[in-house]
Amino acid sequence: MTPHQAWQRQIKGEVETIALEQLVGRVSANMILPYPPGVPLLMPGEMLTKESRTVLDFLLMLCSVVQHYPGFETDIHGANRTKTAFTAYES
Questions:
Q1: Does the structure show a pLDDT above 60 at 52?
Q2: pTM, full prediction
């Protein structure tokens, strides 16, 4: 799916919010970009597969940093920080 197609589904409300843990096998509606360093890990329209599971493991590790080291949290653009969820939809 192209980023444009993902954006069109998002503006039509054809997306759902899911927990980060449920991301494998789903298509991202948002760019997922941890900051710092500010490098996108997932682009809109990109599916996280079992082969790219290390991306999810990295995102989950960033979420756990807040619990273990207050003040050193990373902002994940495209993700709901309080619920560790972000907007995604199935392909």
A1: yes
A2: 0.77
**How many angstroms separate the Cα of 5 from the Cα of each of 11, 29, 45?**
10, 9, 7
What is the secondary structure of 6-55 as a DSSP string? HHHHHHTT--EEEEGGG-TT-EESS-BEEETTT--SB-TTPBP-GGGHHH
Residue 38 and residue 36: Cα distance in Å, rounded?
A: 5
For the domain that residue 26 is a member of, what is the CATH number? 3.90.100.10
Full residue range of the structural domain in which residue 55 is found: 3-89
Question: What are 22's two structure tokens?
Answer: 């449920």
Query: In this structure, what token pair is assigned to residue 30?
Result: 């948002």
d(CA 72, CA 53): 24
